[in-house]
Recover the amino acids of this structure.
């Protein structure tokens, strides 16, 4: 179609996908790209499945990613990777957090959390599993998990030349900056292995 | 300077740049952030939350008639509420420019229907603009204000979820101070008694003719020539999708001014291309008018009218392209419906409600609509703002007349009660039905993300204000049986319901506890304190009965293998609802 790249971040309401999308978009904008980003508010915030879509290039038209169009799918929760899989371009990359958030039907015992998510994903696309929850915990704050995943995304899309650290500084509370930067760098390192 | 803005933020910026002096709205996804962002321009714009959309539009109409540029914003179903003043204000016309922003929600992301509000412009005979990205959304506010004043018409700006909530680059400009126009009494224009209305009816038709001429020449409707085999007429985000899919393999007539349509320009464009497609989300609004004008085109025969459009849907519909997909494995995915939050004050009351037999529960619009989901299952109906109370009345009247055992409980939130539940409750009191109306007062407008309302004590721009007293309002409407309960106290809730259902008169239960996500005001802290501590389950005592699980709290989980329930301490806020339902006292609170 064009030089436009499409990044799909998915997760569960409250996981910080929106902040990651914001930092990503601001960094891309500062680097001179045309950028469009799309997210859904409202009902989805109440523990539902959420997506954040970022598209960038010389000139971007559609703000949303159609099925089969995402260059990378970054899942903040592993079952969400499977839910959104049809949006991945064949040959595209998956970065999936080894992290489970049981949904309503699982909580009430009506179904089990699926056991083969990661194995199944690996048979379908180039999949990197990342222990973002563990990494964030080691850094000292489990809430920095979104920055770990954001770092992995930046590495996965080969965007490490862009100065995202400035954008992180502009978008997180000063007292959490050090940990957030550590999380971001740990995310990049996790994908270098 | 360029900024990355959502369409809603861009409209706020546009309103400021266009010299708007007054803006008003009732919150509703996907429109809410328009007024939240306008409110930031405190020095230049008076920005207010109205109790409902009709009031919002009327206040903006008043500001306009007095000579100020004004704006009202609402989600699409809000325009139904505001339709009465809209159609008449369309007759009287404006003094200062007036723009009504309608945010439609194709795909029903956060709505109860999928209506296409472009028909309102045609129906009310007012000008309409449709931006396709944030830059256009910002620019079109200013242009719409000029059209409004030049043609003496309110202007409908129709946007959709993807315009509202997508960010794109916007060039920021300075404010244009237009000041207030003088107001001179003109009863032949603004006082729509029948004699005036008949004259204005003629003026409206003349206005539509003049606007049709404008539509032919305005740059808002522009042609982009490429390959002429395919021509595409498109508006809104539909243009962006079509442009993405066809690239330079088609020519485009992009419509930004969509009522009245530039029929001659479209006819001319159509004559120069081999095949003409119309790409529009939802209804065949443009297509119908082209067909009525005898312009051959292909639209809804191929492009779906149900749901949102996406680039891949257009590629499939118009190019026959099947995009290869990575197939998902459905066995490895479980549904993830939205849930009432851990600690939500609605949960306890719904839990008690769900246990009562022979009950019909009429619901309303807000977070508490989730009370109808598994495992609470405590709801029968939900159609629109305020309908819980009035629908409940209709049910109860027939049930009682026929000697049916069915009793009705209507469930409505505080903001929804102020919006249009008050008139419904007045009907209940006046016509005496034995319904139980429950006003779930969580001290904030919750679902749309915490907006102030007449009950919270603050205005949109942060000024302390008079707090509307719900029990006093209920009493004044003519209800004598009123109880205020703490919904986290199951015994209190249970007893209030039993009491209300035993009465031979209409009653109201007010559940009063703040939304768990609300930032407590000083008054809240004084009345409710802070959440301290969490609940935990003693695994040795747990008998695996799942009673706690039936409260539907996302902090609770059940281990099928071990047959034990547990609590996720990171989510639990210690509301103690689960503690009250446990039959073996296995749940205790720690950290208090």
């Amino acid at each position: 179609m064009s030089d436009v790249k499409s990044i799909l971040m998915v997760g569960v309401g409250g996981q910080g996908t929106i902040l990651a999308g914001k930092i990503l978009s601001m960094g891309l904008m500062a680097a001179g790209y045309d950028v469009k980003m799309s997210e859904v508010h409202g009902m989805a915030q109440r523990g539902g499945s959420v997506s954040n879509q970022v598209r960038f290039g010389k000139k971007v038209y559609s703000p949303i990613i159609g099925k089969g169009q995402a260059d990378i799918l970054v899942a903040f929760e592993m079952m969400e990777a499977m839910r959104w899989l049809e949006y991945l371009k064949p040959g595209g990359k998956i970065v999936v957090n080894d992290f489970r958030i049981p949904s309503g039907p699982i909580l009430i015992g009506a179904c089990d959390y699926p056991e083969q998510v990661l194995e199944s994903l690996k048979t379908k696309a180039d999949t990197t599993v990342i222990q973002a929850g563990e990494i964030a915990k080691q850094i000292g704050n489990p809430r920095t998990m979104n920055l770990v995943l954001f770092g992995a995304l930046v590495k996965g899309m080969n965007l490490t030349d862009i100065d995202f650290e400035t954008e992180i500084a502009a978008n997180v509370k000063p007292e959490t900056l050090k940990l957030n930067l550590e999380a971001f760098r740990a995310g990049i390192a996790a994908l270098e292995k | 300077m360029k900024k990355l803005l959502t369409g809603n933020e861009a409209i706020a910026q546009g309103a400021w740049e266009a010299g708007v002096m007054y803006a008003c709205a009732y919150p509703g996804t996907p429109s809410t952030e328009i007024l939240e962002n306008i409110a930031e321009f405190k020095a230049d714009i008076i920005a207010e939350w109205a109790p409902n959309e009709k009031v919002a539009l009327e206040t903006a109409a008043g500001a306009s008639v007095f000579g100020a540029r004004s704006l009202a914003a609402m989600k699409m179903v809000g325009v139904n509420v505001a339709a009465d003043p809209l159609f008449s204000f369309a007759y009287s016309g404006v003094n200062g420019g007036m723009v009504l922003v309608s945010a439609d929600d194709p795909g029903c992301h956060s709505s109860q229907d999928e209506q296409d509000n472009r028909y309102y412009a045609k129906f009310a005979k007012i000008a309409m603009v449709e931006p396709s990205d944030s830059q256009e959304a910002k620019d079109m506010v200013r242009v719409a204000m000029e059209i409004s004043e030049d043609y003496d018409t309110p202007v409908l700006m129709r946007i959709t979820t993807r315009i509202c909530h997508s960010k794109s680059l916007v060039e920021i400009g300075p404010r244009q101070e237009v000041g207030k126009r003088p107001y001179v009494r003109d009863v032949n224009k603004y006082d729509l008694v029948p004699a005036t209305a008949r004259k204005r009816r003629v003026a409206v038709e003349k206005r539509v003719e003049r606007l049709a001429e404008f539509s032919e020449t305005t740059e808002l409707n522009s042609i982009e020539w490429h390959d002429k085999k395919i021509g595409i007429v498109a508006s809104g985000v539909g243009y962006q999708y079509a442009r993405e899919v066809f690239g330079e393999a088609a020519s485009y007539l992009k419509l930004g001014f969509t009522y009245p349509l530039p029929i001659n320009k479209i006819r001319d464009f159509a004559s120069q291309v081999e095949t003409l497609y119309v790409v529009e989300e939802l209804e065949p609004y443009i297509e119908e008018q082209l067909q009525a004008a005898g312009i051959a085109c292909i639209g809804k025969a191929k492009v779906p009218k149900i749901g949102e459009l996406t680039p891949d849907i257009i590629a499939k519909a118009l190019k026959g392209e099947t995009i290869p997909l990575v197939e998902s494995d459905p066995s490895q995915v479980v549904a993830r419906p939205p849930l009432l939050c851990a600690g939500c004050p609605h949960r306890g009351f719904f839990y008690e409600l769900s246990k009562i037999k022979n009950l019909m529960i009429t619901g309303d619009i807000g977070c508490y609509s989730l009370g109808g989901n598994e495992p609470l299952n405590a709801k029968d109906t939900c159609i629109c703002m305020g309908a819980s109370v009035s629908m409940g009345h209709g049910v109860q009247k027939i049930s009682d007349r026929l000697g049916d055992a069915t009793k009705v409980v209507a469930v409505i939130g505080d903001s929804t009660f102020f919006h249009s539940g008050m008139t419904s409750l007045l009907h209940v009191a006046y016509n005496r039905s034995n319904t139980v109306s429950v006003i779930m007062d969580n001290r904030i407008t919750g679902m749309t993300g915490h907006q102030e309302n007449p009950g919270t004590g603050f205005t949109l721009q942060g000024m302390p204000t008079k707090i509307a007293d719900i029990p006093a309002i209920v009493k004044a409407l003519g209800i004598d049986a009123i109880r205020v309960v703490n919904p986290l106290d199951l015994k209190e809730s249970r007893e209030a319901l039993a009491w209300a259902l035993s009465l031979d008169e209409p009653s109201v239960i007010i559940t009063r506890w703040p939304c768990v996500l609300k930032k407590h005001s000083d008054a809240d802290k004084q009345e409710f304190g802070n959440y301290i501590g969490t609940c935990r389950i003693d695994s040795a005592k747990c008998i695996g009965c799942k009673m706690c699980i039936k409260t539907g709290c996302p902090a609770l989980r059940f281990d099928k293998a071990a047959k034990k329930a547990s609590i996720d301490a990171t989510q639990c806020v210690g509301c103690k609802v689960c503690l009250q339902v446990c039959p073996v006292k296995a749940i205790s609170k720690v950290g208090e």
